[in-house]
Design brief:
2 copies of one chain form a homodimer. Chain A is mainly alpha-helical. Helix content of chain A is 60%, strand content 6%. In chain A, helix 1 (8-29) crosses helix 5, helix 2 crosses helix 3 and helix 2 (36-47) packs across helix 4. Chain A binds a DNA duplex through residues 17, 20-21, 24, 35-38, 52-54, 62-70, 73, 85, 88-92, 145-147.
Chain lengths: 154, 154
DNA sequence: CGATATTGATCAGTATGCTGACGATCAGTA
DNA sequence: TACTGATCGTCAGCATACTGATCAATATCG
């Protein structure tokens, strides 16, 4: 039987498990309570004010059904707001609040520290190579998940 | 602001997302209904008959609270059994059933196919390198998650 | 031996993620 | 314009994962 350590799927799960744990620990040390998913959503809302939920989902490769709950929690924490769109009454426009902006700014060092810690076993060169290979594998498999990454179309 | 594609945490999440989707699709095509976690647990039970749940958790780096539900479902599907341990009345000994063995055997091609598909964007050499780097990063971060990998101690 | 600490399994609660479905709305077309 | 199909957001249901707690049983040590 193949060893777990020869299975990319197992290694993927394990690495992600560590990445999430490191992220949460660093963020909590900084005095905040924000998950990796919530952070990514908030940062993307800030960079694309007024975008709708489906577009947000595409930009960070979430399933659109997952977004609902994530936004719920961002709104509940006062970091983002959901507004009715004037152009499309089905859609909700997402905007970051002032507190969301403040939180993002203050949390950034912890987030960057987390990225370093999860690569601490690798040299800088190896870390770069790992990211390159992950990007390449992800690009080839993008459409294999229900929540592919999608650019904003103009 | 840093791009998502420069964040190992984001790449980890995305790669794992694809890995799970590929696994489930291949296994379903083969006519089975088994998640990656259930597969890993079942294979580990087969390789270590009579092990208890905490040991199983350590061997595949699960949280022990997650194991309970996973085993519940394996038992419910008739693939594994939970038996009272004679040596330690707190512990449950896990064993694979004949049907579990049959399922494992028949599902193996699909599992191996899934591992290939999730690396299809990479050359064989790159795939090996990706796995090497993941193993190295994971080893360095093993104790950072609540569910570290643990060997069986004799 | 007995008090204390530890361990195995489970539970409640919360947060991703997925499938499949739904109602409301919009877009394209006959 | 009326019909058809697609899209946006949400929901119910299920399966990982985690935190923190509890109960029963075992280990350890004075």
């Amino acid at each position: 039987m193949k060893d777990n350590n020869d299975m990319p799927g197992h290694l993927a799960r394990r690495f992600q498990q560590i990445a999430v744990a490191v992220f949460l620990a660093e963020v909590e040390d900084a005095g905040f309570d924000l998950t990796p998913v919530q952070y990514a959503a908030l940062a993307t809302i800030k960079a694309n004010p007024g975008l709708d939920q489906v577009t947000l989902a595409g930009l960070i490769a979430y399933d659109r059904t997952t977004i609902t709950g994530v936004i719920d929690r961002l709104v509940q924490k006062g970091l983002a707001e959901r507004r009715a769109s004037s152009r499309d009454r089905r859609a909700r426009e997402l905007v970051i609040t002032d507190e969301g902006r403040r939180t993002l700014r203050k949390i950034t060092p912890a987030v960057e520290s987390a990225q370093r810690i999860m690569l601490r076993g690798l040299s800088a060169k190896e870390g770069e190579e790992l990211m390159r290979l992950l990007r390449k594998a992800i690009a080839a498999g993008n459409d294999l998940s229900r929540a592919p990454l999608r650019d904003i179309q103009a």
